[in-house]
Amino acid sequence: MHVEIWSDISCPWCYVGKARFEKALTLFRHRDHVEVTHRSFELDPQLAHTGPTTGAAHAKKYDLTPAEARAAEENLAGIAREEGLDYLVDFRDHGNTFDLHRLLQLSAARGLHDELLTLFYQGNFAAERSIYDSEHQVEIAVRAGLDEAEIRAVLADRRAYADEVRRDEAEAAQLGITGVPFFVIDRKYGVSGAQSVEAFSEVLRRAWAERQPVLTVLGTDDRAGCDAHGCETPRGWSTGEPRTPGI
Amino acid sequence: MHVEIWSDISCPWCYVGKARFEKALTLFRHRDHVEVTHRSFELDPQLAHTGPTTGAAHAKKYDLTPAEARAAEENLAGIAREEGLDYLVDFRDHGNTFDLHRLLQLSAARGLHDELLTLFYQGNFAAERSIYDSEHQVEIAVRAGLDEAEIRAVLADRRAYADEVRRDEAEAAQLGITGVPFFVIDRKYGVSGAQSVEAFSEVLRRAWAERQPVLTVLGTDDRAGCDAHGCETPRGWSTGEPRTPGI
Fold it and tell me: B240 CB contacts (<8 Å, ≥6 apart)?
């Protein structure tokens, strides 16, 4: 089963949702048959780095008093901590996540995607330092296991892994995804938001039960393959090119 | 779209099929939306390393004269060369591929799966040296970009990445796959054997056209997510745990 998760580093519900989904996955008996792919999604591609204004920005955006905005953040921090996640209400910057996503795509190419994603979330929500500071990004990516020279080369070239980010975002648009976190199972079910562990468990069970159990197999009559008994029809090798199956 | 390819290093049709599939993929206009995962399949898990007996083994297995067996190999070499692949009729050993698959699983974890698979095929079909020689395996894996100490540690411990190989093989059994190469598209279509480039192209087009375009989205009424306008309902944060969707 293939689960794709679109998310953005600046999204607190993505941070929470990842932890809840992973709990559900740990409890899922077919977990060894589930492959997870993380996908890029920028909540605000136009955003410039605006500094440590989260509280003020929230207050303005939602027409809250600063005290109300802080209370909302405190509440979200409580929800995150219930999932065992560190969460600092202060110290969080707001900024453009494109470079973070490019580095995540590099980490995917190096088999370190989950490691880097986890550390980037921690770097944004639980560190007293801005995640938009590129030296902070380098430090975190090295900690995830990436090569420092390669990290710096990617950061220095805005085109590096940009196509991969755009491709994920184009796929999200194609699937009608406008917010994150968004979970897609076998391109059949979508789950929007940081649902509860129970809800994720239920979706996993349901998708598993409804997996198409039988493949439509094309091209069996002229296999050009090998099995436990050997390679198909050695005399057939003399016939050259295998026939195109009737599809 | 997700394409999974089950194959074994000792399988000449897998070598040919990989090249043909990749040609079809290069020609496919939606190729940027196709993800390929290689899966382990041992044609003969019980096999011991039996030395350079390919020709004799073939002759015996298919009740051919040595001349006929050689002619069959020459023919297959011709088919491989048509795909631009190097292929030596002599110098090929026959043996157990479990270690090769474990190293391939390591390479998958390091984002180097395709690199190593390509080099292992070349090492088996186009090198004047046995692929079952572990020093040859180390050299090839280093060339693919893996860390030498890590390669040697995996080779020294037969349990390393063994579960990953067995998981792929269990999935193959579940899908009814008994021979390789076997191509599975979105767990919906299966293609058996090294079909022609045209046949692969047709399957890719057909699977693309029939992709389920609309997701069944669960849990939209209480999203606990973020979108371009911000994170859902800051006042909602005060409500604590988001509701379990009605699934």
Answer: A75, A78, A79
- Domain chopping of chain A, boundaries: 2-208
Confirm or reject contact between A208 and chain B (CB < 8 A).
no
Judge: A180–B72 Cβ closer than 8 Å, yes or no. Answer: no
Express each pLDDT in B130-185 by its tens digit. 999 999 999 999 999 999 999 999 999 999 999 999 999 999 998 889 889 999 99
Lowest pLDDT segment from A25-29, A216-220, B225-229: A216-220
Is B175 touching A (CB cutoff 8 A)? yes
Taking the C-alpha atoms of residue A214 and residue A206, their distance in angstroms, rounded to an integer, is 17
As a whole number of angstroms, the distance between CA B98 and CA B107 comes to 14
Binding-face residues of B in 31-50 toward A, CB within 8 A: 32-33, 35, 37, 43-44
For domain A2-208, give its CATH number from 3.40.640.10, 3.40.30.10, 3.30.70.1350, 3.30.870.10: 3.40.30.10
d(CA B205, CA B185): 11
Please check whether residue A210 touches B, CB under 8 A. Answer: no
A105 to chain B, closest Cα gap in Å: 11
Q: What is the pTM of this model?
A: 0.66
